[in-house]
Specification:
With 311 residues, the protein is of the alpha/beta class. The chain has helices spanning 23-38, 57-70, 81-88, 94-106, 117-123, 172-175, 190-200, 213-226, 229-232, 259-264, 269-279, 290-296, and strands at 10-13, 42-45, 110-113, 146-149, 156-161, 166-171, 180-182, 205-209, 235-239. It has one domain (10-109, 150-301): HUPs (Rossmann fold, 3-Layer(aba) Sandwich). The protein is built from twelve helices and nine strands. The radius of gyration is 20 Å and the shape is globular.
Length: 311
């Protein structure tokens, strides 16, 4: 069912400091920002930093540098890397995430799983969890065990996508069976943190790439389990992905494709905005900065597919 329009759009730009941002990130930032600004909405900068293993200070600084380089503003969120670490890091919100896990525990929806990735891969070449521990009753207090949520067989999650202009159905029990909600190190997983942050920040429009359609379904499922209707009534827009010349999704691990690398090679803000305009099919548009991009932007003209980016 199509969600009712909210009085005022509130959305977020939510990068992770796990690598240098690439052209696909810039396209996502531009679409998210323009959707909000076109409708006098609010933009929040939220940096998802729960993954300490890949966090680097340089990647955090790169987020702020990229937004400044692009000329994209926001209404709420950290003003600088230091402000982020002091006041906005997700690690400050861990009690909120653990409270959400407690709600799931109270409904007897969780179980412990000590399986390693290699053990799962040996049983499931596709990497999908084979429900090894669903009925083993491993204690939740087991050291080094992740917590998984029981996704009943034949669970299908449906949500309305503003770009597709129709309901999108995800067979969650097949695509993300019994997914992790608390990692082995005791830190709540991304899906939990994302739902909690969107609820706490009053977000009513989530813009993300099409590669996260299954994540959206997992988060809607979590909200359904806990009765958070503000999230189940969320509006979603899954924009097309930007692919490399090899047909694969751009990766932060490829510095040659990063905005950081392109800027070192002399790319200007105007050149970046022109490239984003061309990727959206605006070949005759005079786009050279954020303001001219916004003037040209039409939400209904976001393409379902973006052609591969040739390096």
């Amino acid at each position: 069912m199509k969600p009712q329009p909210a009085a005022n759009i509130k959305t977020r730009i939510a990068p992770t400091p796990s690598g240098y941002l690439h052209l696909g990130n810039a396209l996502s930032f531009a679409i998210t920002w323009a959707l909000a600004r076109k409708q006098n909405g609010t933009v929040v900068l939220r940096i998802d930093d729960l993954d300490n293993t890949r966090f680097r200070p340089g990647y955090l600084h790169n987020i702020f540098d990229t937004l400044q380089f692009m000329g994209i503003d926001y209404d709420e969120g950290p003003a600088s890397p230091d402000d982020f670490l002091r006041n906005y890091s997700q690690h400050h919100r861990l009690p909120l995430y653990h409270d959400f896990l407690d709600q799931l525990l109270a409904k007897d929806l969780l179980y412990a799983c000590p399986c390693s990735r290699s053990q799962i891969a040996a049983l499931s070449p596709e990497g999908l969890y084979p429900m090894t521990c669903r009925n083993l009753q491993v204690p939740l207090s087991e050291p080094g065990a992740a917590w998984r949520i029981h996704v009943p067989d034949h669970t299908i999650i449906s949500f309305y996508d503003l770009l597709l202009r129709e309901n999108y159905e995800v067979p969650l029990w097949e695509q993300m069976p019994d997914f992790v909600v608390r990692r082995k190190d005791g830190i709540p997983a991304y899906q939990v943190a994302s739902v909690c942050d969107d609820l706490q920040m009053g977000i009513n429009l989530v813009v993300r790439g099409q590669d996260l359609l299954t994540s959206t379904a997992a988060q809607v499922f979590l909200a359904q389990c806990t009765g958070h209707t503000a999230f189940t009534n969320m509006r979603f827009l899954h924009h097309p992905l930007l692919l490399g010349s090899d047909g694969a999704k751009l990766s932060k691990s490829q510095d040659a494709q990063s905005l950081h690398g392109m800027r070192q090679q002399g790319m200007t803000p105007a050149a970046l905005w022109q490239r984003l305009a061309h990727l959206l099919g605006w070949h005759d548009a005079d786009v050279a900065d954020a303001r001219s991009f916004l003037e040209r932007f039409r939400p209904e003209e976001i393409p379902l597919l973006v052609k591969s980016y040739e390096l």
